């Protein structure tokens, strides 16, 4: 059945997301709710904190007594990648906002990224003298700390704005997409400089990340990165004349997920001109003065370290931090001989912020002194304070919602991140079944608004699907990502849509080896699934009620992996992901086949080395939602918590592979999407969820011993 030649082959053209493509999608009146998972993101709960520099620099028992973090953001959504701003542009900003700095003198301005609006965008917090910080007093106990936060917020004299309120379009390139990721903000003269994914790349597996500048005075936005190039982590020189970036350069992204092996470039902040390669292999640049840049890279001995290079000389880079500790994401002081860095030490389970004295060549502890049991990320500094972000934990009395609303680029498509993975909708769209976390046990059902969470299965499971006719939930019972001979079975969970769990019953439908990713036919009579029983992971169809005992048919056959199958609601097609083009390479394309084994063809692929996974049909069978690496990565992976595959984003397309549309823009691994028929209004969310626990992992590939680091060396 699998020997038919492909009859349709479409390699994604990312330029399909043009205005014409959008109009086509809109005309077809796509509607419903798309739910998906992001690795760990639901539990980040990031806020930005800072500490005073002077006690840390003195570093004595008396100077550190009473040292307390000051929280700089308000506990709304996630807030991260802060930057203290300075320079004449602040006066332009104040004038733009009609702020009288004579009567309300500025104390400080901080730019940062927040996802409170449903996507990652730049915000500015403007603080005035005479106000109170969110928390600047020493308090003991969670309740007392929360009360102090509430008092501080009510007394704080500040203004918060988002960059979008200042923008009035993009010069030279058309408008672009404002539903995009913004990251790493800074200021150069009267311009806000930042990374954005607002313009699609012309090629698949090419990052959309580029540096843009928005004039505070006029609101006009211009692109500083050349088309066809991806830039990350911009840093502005003290004069505001130059920008340094970590760039993929002409080489492009080659599938790296740990060290992107970017190069350092510099160019003029005014218009991107005089762009030149500074050095090979470097990331996260930070200026100490007009001639000195610090940056990070993974050294040949396996340890991530900070280096120094002179801009306008031919000197080679000098390693600054020693082996034996990972040091990265540097922030250089412009007022003293020291750096702020994030570290991972062999004797610590946590990422911490430390200072490094450039004269004494020694580290000074920072965050371990005040919050030892949290991960801390991406330091930034001013002449008086050192800032960073971490999970807020119990600092704000909040819960992690089961469903988090994201802004959607399509007017009748609601987009939600679930606190879990493998969501699927009931036939009427009123409920969602999902796995809370692939590393933990259980299958749960919630109402569409996120309320009434019930466990319907207690064992280890992955993958879910809801029968269209009989109200049965199917899942794979057993460990995920195992070999073909591992014991994983398809089970049916009956009466999962009932309010009373006492009516729930179970039936095992398969018998041998590794069976996963069940998807029922629309008439409820059959189930397609992936099985390793032949020695390879191929697709099979079995009777939905009796399982293998009622009949079993092999749908695909070959020495490759066919997986992640989904049966279209109209019954015509089964979509699946396959590595048959290059078995064992890790590259997957999307294929279609009729349930009778005819019509096999490839619908979408992401070049010869890319991934198109987890296809799911729309309720009308005319479109698909899926996850892919089409847009590469959007940020340096070391700057965020652990992501297995940081290139994963959610896309949508017609069933013929045309009209491809990117739905998510972030630095996380997004995956396992599904599509329900009911449009969920975010105002209808129940707001239920768990307390903030900060139970996410730091980058597991940051080895913490010299022996392990040596094992990760590149040959």
UniProtKB/TrEMBL annotation:
Record's keyword annotation contains Signal: yes
Which keywords does this Swiss-Prot/TrEMBL entry list? Signal
Show the stretches that span the lipid bilayer.
none
InterPro entries the record matches:
6-blade_b-propeller_TolB-like, WD40
| Signal sequence bounds | 1-20
Name under which the protein is recorded: Dipeptidylpeptidase IV N-terminal domain-containing protein
Species whose genome carries this gene: Araucaria cunninghamii (Hoop pine)
Phylogenetic lineage: Eukaryota, Viridiplantae, Streptophyta, Embryophyta, Tracheophyta
């Amino acid at each position: 059945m699998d020997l038919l030649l492909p009859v349709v082959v479409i390699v994604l053209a990312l330029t399909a997301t043009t205005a014409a493509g959008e109009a086509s999608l809109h005309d077809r009146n796509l509607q419903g709710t798309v739910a998906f998972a992001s690795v760990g993101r639901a539990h980040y709960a990031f806020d930005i904190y800072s500490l005073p520099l002077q006690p840390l620099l003195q570093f004595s028992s008396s100077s550190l007594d009473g040292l307390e973090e000051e929280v700089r953001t308000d506990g709304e959504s996630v807030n991260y990648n802060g930057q203290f701003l300075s320079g004449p542009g602040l006066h332009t900003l104040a004038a733009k906002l009609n702020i009288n700095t004579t009567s309300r003198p500025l104390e400080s301005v901080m730019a940062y990224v927040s996802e409170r609006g449903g996507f990652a965008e730049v915000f500015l917090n403007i603080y005035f003298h005479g106000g109170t910080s969110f928390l600047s007093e020493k308090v003991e106990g969670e309740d007392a700390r929360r009360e102090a936060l509430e008092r501080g917020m009510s007394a704080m004299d500040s203004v918060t704005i988002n960059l979008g309120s200042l923008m009035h379009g993009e010069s030279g390139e058309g408008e672009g997409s404002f539903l995009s990721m913004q990251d790493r903000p800074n200021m150069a003269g009267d311009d806000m400089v930042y990374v954005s994914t607002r313009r699609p790349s012309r090629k698949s597996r090419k990052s959309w990340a580029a540096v843009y500048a928005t004039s505070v005075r006029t609101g006009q936005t211009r692109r500083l990165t050349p088309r066809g190039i991806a830039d990350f982590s911009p840093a502005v020189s003290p004069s505001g004349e130059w920008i340094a970036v970590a760039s993929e350069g002409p080489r492009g992204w080659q599938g790296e997920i740990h060290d992107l092996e970017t190069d350092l470039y510099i160019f003029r902040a005014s218009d991107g001109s005089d762009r030149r390669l500074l050095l090979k292999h470097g990331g996260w640049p930070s200026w100490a003065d007009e001639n000195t840049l610090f940056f990070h890279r993974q050294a040949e001995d396996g340890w991530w370290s900070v280096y120094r290079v002179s801009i306008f000389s031919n000197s080679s880079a000098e390693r600054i931090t020693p082996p034996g500790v990972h040091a990265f994401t540097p922030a250089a002081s412009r007022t003293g001989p020291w750096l702020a860095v994030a570290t991972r030490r062999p004797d610590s389970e946590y990422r911490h912020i430390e200072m490094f004295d450039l004269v004494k060549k020694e580290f000074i502890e920072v965050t371990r002194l005040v919050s030892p049991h949290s991960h801390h990320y991406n330091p930034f500094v001013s002449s008086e304070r050192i800032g960073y972000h971490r999970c807020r934990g119990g600092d704000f009395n909040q819960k992690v919602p089961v469903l988090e609303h994201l802004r959607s680029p399509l007017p009748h498509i609601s987009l939600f991140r679930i606190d879990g993975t493998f969501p699927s909708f009931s036939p009427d769209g009123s409920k969602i079944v999902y796995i809370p976390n692939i590393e933990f046990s259980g299958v749960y059902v919630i109402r569409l608004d996120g309320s009434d969470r019930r466990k319907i299965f207690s064992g280890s499971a992955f993958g879910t699907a809801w029968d269209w006719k009989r109200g049965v939930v199917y899942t794979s019972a057993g460990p995920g990502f195992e070999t073909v001979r591992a014991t994983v079975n398809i089970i049916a969970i009956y009466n999962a849509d009932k309010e009373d769990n006492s009516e729930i019953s179970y039936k095992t439908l398969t018998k041998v080896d590794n069976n996963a990713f069940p998807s029922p036919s629309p008439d409820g009579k059959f189930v397609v699934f992936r099985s390793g029983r032949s020695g390879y992971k191929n697709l099979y169809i079995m009777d939905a009620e009796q399982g293998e005992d009622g009949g079993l048919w092999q749908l695909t056959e070959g020495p490759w992996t066919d997986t992640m199958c989904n049966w279209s609601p109209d019954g015509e097609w089964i979509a699946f992901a396959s590595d048959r083009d290059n078995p064992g390479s890790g590259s997957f394309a999307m294929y279609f086949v009729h349930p009778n084994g005819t019509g096999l063809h490839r619908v979408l692929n992401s070049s010869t080395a890319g991934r198109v996974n987890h296809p799911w049909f729309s309720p009308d069978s005319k479109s698909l939602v899926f996850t892919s690496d089409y847009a590469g990565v959007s940020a340096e992976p070391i700057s965020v918590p652990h992501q297995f595959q940081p290139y994963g984003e959610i896309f949508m397309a017609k069933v013929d592979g045309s009209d491809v549309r990117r739905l998510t823009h972030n630095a996380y691994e997004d995956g396992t999407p599904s599509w329900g028929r009911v449009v969920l209004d975010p105002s209808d969310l129940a707001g239920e969820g768990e307390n903030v626990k900060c139970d996410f992992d730091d980058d597991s590939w940051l080895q913490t011993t010299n022996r392990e680091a040596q094992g990760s060396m590149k040959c």
